[in-house]
Amino acid sequence: MPPLLMLKELKKVFAATRGLPPVEVLAGVSLDLEKGSFTCVVGPSGCGKTTLLRIVAGLETASSGRVLLEGVEIEGPGARVGLVFQEFALFPWRTILGNVTFGLEVRGDLTAGERKARAEYYLELVGLRGFEKRYPREISGGMKQRVAIARTLVVQPHLLLMDEPFGSLDAQTRNAMQEFLVDLWLRTGITVLFVTHNVDEAVFLGERVVALTSRPCSVRHIYPVPLEYPRDRTATQFVEIRREILSYLAKESGADE
Amino acid sequence: MERLPLSANERGRPRGLDYPWKRDQALSASWSLALRLITPLTFIAIWQLLCSSGALGATPSPWQVLGALWSLATKPDPYLHATLWSHLGASLFRVIGGFFIALLVGVGLGLLMGWYPLVYHSLHPLVEMIRPVPPFAWVVLAILWFKIGNAPAIFIVFLGAVFPMIINTVSGVEAVDRVLCEAAATLGANSRQILWKVVIPSALPQIITGLRVGLGVAWMSLIAAEMVGVGGRGLGLIIDISKSTWKLDYSVAAMVVIGLIGFFLDFLMRRAERALLRWR
After folding, report:
1. What angle do CA A176, A178, A181 make, to 5 degrees?
2. Among B188, B202, B204, whose Cβ lies nearest the Cβ of A79?
């Protein structure tokens, strides 16, 4: 079976603005994602991880190269590829339930009752039943991100992109959210592409960790993480893989200066 | 339960005055009502005292104004041809009619200008050149085009209300968080759905501000236009006619009604605002 997602020699150059020279962000990124896999992407800060995700989500167009989802070129944003933002991006004027039903409303094929039932199923899945009538400002950061995940999953995307989704959360909430995400992935079997600058997070979550070079970025190395879920951060092998990736990143960031 | 000792900071601080950003620590209902009544009542008392002492010359006192209100409301004045209610009704009809026309045009144009750069660049210079012209300056043209009656007055109301609505709607749309639009797009929304389901609700607070400001400007513009007889009736006309008949108490009575109605209209707008923006 062909991979679910294929990135072929993706290049991206941001055009010159305000007298500043053009910036080459992606220098030919190639990567395949198998259906149902969990892939984490790490790289030095500012290396273009977010740009890569935005291209896959269809929010940005590549300067050259191809993005194929199930063999079909991505032509713009849509419900087939879900994106979870670091800043949650919930609609503050909608209740939690209203946020989750949004994607079903714009699709327009279900009755209000069916939309509500399906949204409730996903709120149950992320452990937020009972909060349907709250507004986003009334719940915590971790809960907001779980709402954002439910909102994305409810339209059943074929691929889930996550852009440092736990970056703004405190350490405890962050760990809890990582465990929650592993559990969710094991239960739903969705394909995940997860961008982070946190190596510990990447090794805890991913079946493999893709290390990018500094800008303009390409894939430097793919580290398999052959550990059982749920993972133990203190296990020898976990620590070893982590150390290996960290030392690579330290070298790569150093080369930048 | 054991009570902890109060810190020096907590002791003796009047509640509700110390942390203005804490809405739930706001004044109690009776306190705020009392404060809201004290200032106007003091104002009226001082006014009455000054009149009784003769310091304000022929200025009608609050008591005389009350009397004028009573006679205006109960019997039609020979010079005004109608009672206060008829004039009040005319003014209200015009301000409400003109307001809703301005709402459709102003919010509509504001959305298009804020969302489509093409529309913005085509209309912005024209809007910004008509905007500084006081609505009152249009009176002669309004009468020329619409004759005397409700129509020119509604036109003046429209001119007063429409610009604050356009300006505020445009800046509300410009301030929409692009991430929310992107989130909607990745959930499958098309650009029309993004406009209706993301842009409009997120610009709504500022749109409502535009409606409030617009209604206030419209009310003032209408009274000014009525004072030069644009409608043949109206609260503004009472002031104008009383000027010629030297009925100062009628003038001030009309001013009081104008102020009260303005306050009431804004009160309705704030009610609507609170109902529509419960999520904040």
Report:
1. 110
2. B188
